[in-house]
Amino acid sequence: MLLRPASRTTIRSGDNLCVRSRRKLPRSTRQISSAATAAVGEDESSIHYRLPVNTPSGNDLEPASTTRWEAIKTAKPFSSFLTDNFNRQHDYLRISVTERCNLRCLYCMPEEGVPLSPPAHLLTSPEIHYLASLFVSQGVTKIRLTGGEPTVRRDILPLMHSIGSLRRHGLRELCLTTNGISLYRKLDSMVEAGLTGVNLSLDTLDPFQFQIMTRRKGLDAVMKSIDRILEMNRLGAGIKLKINCVVMRGINEREILPFVEMGRDKEVEVRFIEYMPFDGNKWSKGKMLSYGEMLDIIREKYPGLRKIQDHKNDTSKTYQVPGFPGRVGFITSMTHNFCGTCNRLRITSDGNLKVCLFGNSEVSLRDLLRKDNSGNPLDEEAFEALKEVEMNRQQGLAGPNGPMSWAERENELLEVIGMAVKRKKERHAGMGELENMKNRPMILIGG
């Protein structure tokens, strides 16, 4: 079912004009959405990749104070484009910024790696920034950069600073999923960019087992990254550190207790993840150690392990050993799904929107974004050229058969996003179906 076209509210921002797509709703007493806050507080620097749109001319423009009041009056609790048919509000966006990785983890991809997309098929940094700002304008408050391994992207630091600038428009959390190999060298700049959380993938604390599981060396570098985060937190950085450990029967289940004991004197949360099936990872039910079995292993040594209250959208079930500052979590995708409170959307490195990690349906945002650039990648120069075309259109200098206005293109993007979100299923398939379902390798989805 097609969504109704969104109305547009034009906001003056310095010498430019930008658009915010918004549905007209009754005046609400609920908290103003981050989208409305962004619209009211936008400045010229924040529309680096936003294009001006058709606006009334001369005296038809409303005073800034009136426009601000209109923005407040028409603010909605949450974007309908990001709300599915089960009333789940998707305010968490995961963006894969690269398909490359410096490890070859057993559960992620085959030893020989996976075929990588041609560079021209991958999103550019301006495209990533634009999509991030579009989703934030619709109510996304948390963005996580994933991969592959995001720290291997050459411009990861300026990209994070660019996305971090969206905090003034409602972004509250900027997080990273990483294997930690080179994180410690880039961490200071990332914190300056606004980094608030790190999910660090680590499946063993034994250097020899690490080499077996990742097919590479590097445990010392990973531990250096963990220690650097903890050191920065002691100085007040406030980085939420979570260590993700995929547990596989017969391979690393003996690591469960050593990981739990990391929390004896370190304020970390170790999350044990049930082994999940993806293309190329040779998944089998026999290798999967269930949440219940992991709990039994821990409680045999720590019978006082107690449950902690989880937040609504948490993916993990959280526990704590009395007296330990650290915590233990379990991500139970295979045995106890948490689909009912799912608030996550994913954008792959090649620009596809994926509404469910375990779903194989995707829709390309990249192709729609590049439509007016002959399908070519949009770099900063291309965005500036499109901006010039839009300015010429406003001044009546563009021909009638030119490309769609950027406001219309943005609205088309939102319609496509909205339809994809509305098609999201109530829950993903069961274990038996997932085992045989065609899906990308995990590295090509984004962790």
Walkthrough of the structure:
The structure is a single chain. This protein has 447 residues and is an alpha/beta fold. It has a domain at 84-362 and 424-445: Aldolase class I (TIM Barrel, Alpha-Beta Barrel). The chain has 14 helices and 14 strands. The strands form 2 sheets. The protein has a 12-stranded mixed sheet. A two-stranded antiparallel ribbon has the order 1-2. A hairpin with an 8-residue loop joins strand 13 (352-354) and strand 14. Helix 1 runs antiparallel to helix 2 (64-73), helix 4 runs parallel beside helix 5 and helix 5 (183-193) runs parallel beside helix 7. The protein is globular. The protein starts with 6 loop residues before the first strand and ends with a helix.
Summarize this entry quickly.
With about 450 residues, the protein is of the alpha/beta class. It has helices at about 35-40, 65-75, 125-135, 155-165, 185-195, 205-215, 220-235, 255-260, 290-300, 365-370, 380-395, 405-420, 430-435, 440-445, and strands spanning about 5-15, 15-20, 90-95, 140-145, 175-180, 195-200, 240-245, 270-275, 305, 315-320, 325-330, 345, 350-355, 365. One of its GO terms (biological process) is Mo-molybdopterin cofactor biosynthetic process.
Instruction: Return the average pLDDT rounded to an integer.
Output: 80
CATH superfamily (homologous) name of the domain at 84-362 and 424-445? Aldolase class I
Shape: globular
Looking at the structure, the CATH topology of the domain at 84-362 and 424-445 is TIM Barrel
Low-confidence stretches: 1-64
Distance between the termini: 31 Å
Q: Could you state the order of secondary-structure elements as H and E?
A: EEHHEHEHEHEHHEHEHEEEEEEHHHHH
CATH architecture of the domain at 84-362 and 424-445: Alpha-Beta Barrel
Largest sheet: 12 strands, mixed
